[in-house]
Amino acid sequence: MSFVKLTASTLAIAAVSATAAAARDQVQVAGSSTVLPYASIVAEAFGENFDFPTPVVESGGSSAGLKRFCEGVGENTIDIANASRAIREKEIKACADAGVTDIIEVRIGYDGIVFASDINGNGFEFTPSDWFLALSDQIVVDGELVANPNKTWNEVNADFPAQPIQAFVPGTKHGTREVFEEKVILTGCEETGALEAFTAANGGDEDAAEKACIALRTDGVSVDIDGDYTETLARIESNKDGIGVFGLAFYENNTDKLQVATMSGVVPSTESISTGEYPVSRPLFFYVKKAHIGVIPGLKEYAEFFISDEVAGPDGPLAEYGLVSDPELAKTQEAVAAEATMGGNS
Amino acid sequence: MTDLSQSPASGDVPKQKKLGNSLLELTDRTKRRNAAETRFKAYGIVAIAIGLLMLVVLVTTIFSRGLGAFQQTFITLEVELLEDKLDKSGNRDLDEIKKVTTFGYAPIIRDAVAAKVSELGIETPLKPKAMADILSKDAAATLRAYVIENPDQIGETVEFRFLAQSRVDGYLKSRVSRDSIGNDKNISAEQLDLVDALVAADVIEKTFNLSFILGSDASDARPEAAGMGVSMLGSLFMMLVVLVLALPIGVAASIYLEEFAPQNWLTDIIEVNISNLAAVPSIVFGILGLAVFINYMHLPSSAPLVGGLVLTLMTLPTIIISTRASLKAVPPSIRDAALGVGASKMQSVFHHVLPLAAPGILTGTIIGLAQALGETAPLLLIGMVGFIASNAPGTISEGLLSPNSAMPAQIYEWAKRADPAFYERAWGGIIILLVFLITMNTLAVILRRRFERRW
């Protein structure tokens, strides 16, 4: 009984509000939690400096954001998806199926991925091979592929202390995971020569071999963190042997609790990432629905403001927070000004 | 327990005799039973003690971590609003003044800090930019908003109270120490020296921070400027929606079910399902809200209206159950008497039963609202968790439709952020939320005490 009345009154309210809700006047953004701090800094400055309302920025992960982005065109869909990885072919197709055909890709800069452990624990100097040997599901021992037997770091590399291996890596819904797999585990797989063994085991199929390379062990040594970096930090605080994967900006805000490990001998910093010395970095993006430009007020202005020199440049607030600014920012600015869509000109 | 079966079987004459001997002398069995009772009391006291201990730990943790958020570090500066930087043409045209972004205000603040430092004769190796970095990034925004509001002040020197950046604030709150900033690129030891000197000169002071309670959320770059105010309004608007919808619907449904509905299988099914709904996890209502209100009805996402509708669905069973319970508690003699003097069924309900049940209904409603106020999960899916720094809405319809957050969602959002200063604010937010919940629950208790009648 109550439901009939409930639906009736909801409908009544909806009817009243539908007219008022007809024009959404603020930009809606969702996506990567890595991009969220940057997007919120820009959204705040945008609200202060322009007569448009402050955009709403939600997080939830790159994949979740792009999924919502690709739900269709219209005011009840988001205008911008933040992503810590490039959009996939599959997602472009899903977008096209839902009518989202013109997408503007905007690269905002680069972000470093760092490995950090408790400040009072042992310091580490990693190479990608170390991580492969520590976390891969299978490694090569005496020419044979076996389930990963390593339990402590000194088994991986004789220079390391005898500390149990305990890694907190981002879960698969995070864009960071993909970069970790590609730039660290896969590189380590190649360096140790395990890739050839996997290729041979898979009958020459290189794709399958790469997949086997990046399969992480599931015996509890590597723990997937589906939440944010704060969760990884909390895990390390409760388990001092743990080593976590963080974004550079997060580490730089928590230097009193974390110490950072070097990768291939390079200390991660905005400088070493912008020169390309530090190997584990990835571009950050946001994607704009072109169909919404001109419909949602301030959308294009927000996109242009985001990548303007004073915001995303080397001296801007984003760089100060930890973003490695893009040397080719001018090109991106032009592309956004011209509303160049993906596949259209790039 | 076994004494009944034992005593005839044992046939132990001396023991039997002893049993009847004296009331003052305790038998073994009585001693055992008394001991069992004493033990049970002890268990109860231990259980209560554990509960109280948990409460004390919880409350002290919340207050020790959260009270800091109500204090904030401010720096008082005299700023010269240079005409050639802020209004080049000098015609005080608001549109032209607005063209100067917050980035254009940074040099003015830099000069003001440098002037203050040299005026006080403080020796520091820092460059003006590094000196100005002890101020919040919010300072430029404060300044710009002031200039746009008072364009006639351009050219004058005005005194401002700016927020200090979160590390400076943490230093004064002993969250940040000189040892902990070794690798921190947001603050240096020289800057802390400058802060010490400015504290000695009374330029920097830590005072009560009203904008934490009334302000809006701020981005990751300026945790010191973040406040609960706007999300409080968001919660308020949602509670309005819940109250306006859930109370009449819930009361109407319960009165019908309790007083008018025939007892048959249909009403039985409805009753069972209402009880079931009360136990449905709240996230389910969030998914329902996303599917029905946003995707199907095209209501705006992140709007308190949608949040309120979702929470209404969640609160309705609670209200119906408590309303029915308080209707049941009204003695049938009241109804019979009303019907006996010729009142219709409806008159007996609305003139006699409902007023007597009202305190119970109100209590149930307030408890339901308090439960809805603390709910985060259903809001996750309808876009009310995120960076939503909208300003306070002007009208009720704007408040219902413009994007907003809610208090628990805001706390969750802060707890996730990288800067430790947000962590303190999350605990501070919990204090504010607790104050609301305790107020609502106290109100419920008072209403019940004041108006409830017992038979």
From TrEMBL, chain A:
UniProt keyword annotation of Signal present = yes
Q: Does the keyword Signal apply?
A: yes
Keyword annotations of the record: Signal
Indicate the segments forming the PBP domain, all copies: 17-310
Look up the signal peptide feature and give its range.
Answer: 1-20
Question: What InterPro entries does its record include?
Answer: PBP_domain (IPR024370), Phosphate_ABC_transporter (IPR050811)
Q: Which Pfam families match?
A: PBP_like_2
Q: Where are the transmembrane segments?
A: none
**Would you tell me the protein name for this molecule?**
Phosphate-binding protein PstS
Automatic annotation (TrEMBL), chain B:
Positions of the ABC transmembrane type-1 domain: 232-444
> What does the UniProt entry say about where the protein is found?
Cell inner membrane; Cell membrane
Q: Which residues cross the membrane?
A: 42-63, 236-257, 277-296, 303-323, 349-370, 426-447
* UniProt keywords, alphabetically: Cell membrane, Membrane, Transmembrane, Transmembrane helix, Transport
- Using the UniProt record, give the first listed, main subcellular location: membrane
Q: GO cellular component terms?
A: plasma membrane
Q: What CDD domains does the database record attribute to this sequence?
A: TM_PBP2 (cd06261)
Q: Name one GO molecular function term.
A: phosphate transmembrane transporter activity
Q: How does it sit in the membrane?
A: Multi-pass membrane protein
Protein family per UniProt: Belongs to the binding-protein-dependent transport system permease family. CysTW subfamily.
- Stated name of the protein: Phosphate transport system permease protein PstA
Provenance organism: Tritonibacter horizontis
What broad taxonomic lineage does this protein's source fall under? Answer: Bacteria, Pseudomonadati, Pseudomonadota, Alphaproteobacteria, Rhodobacterales
